[in-house]
# Entry
Amino acid sequence: MCAYTGEWEYHCLRPRREETKKEASDPTTELNRLGSDGWELAETIAYTGGGTKYLVFKRPATSGPADGENDSESEGDERR
# Structure
């Protein structure tokens, strides 16, 4: 296990949209996966005019490579 370095790493998730593109689909499965990997919700970024565009997560950075660093399961999955 890598030691905490006093810094954060961030992960952005764009909630998937339902077929109508008006409503986000339920992100519970993805949120549970991120939580089990040590991510916690830090912020939401909303569209101008309403609606959530991104969910921003953070977790303590480690001295080694991040778990799943090259893992990009969902279409809107973006690592920063």
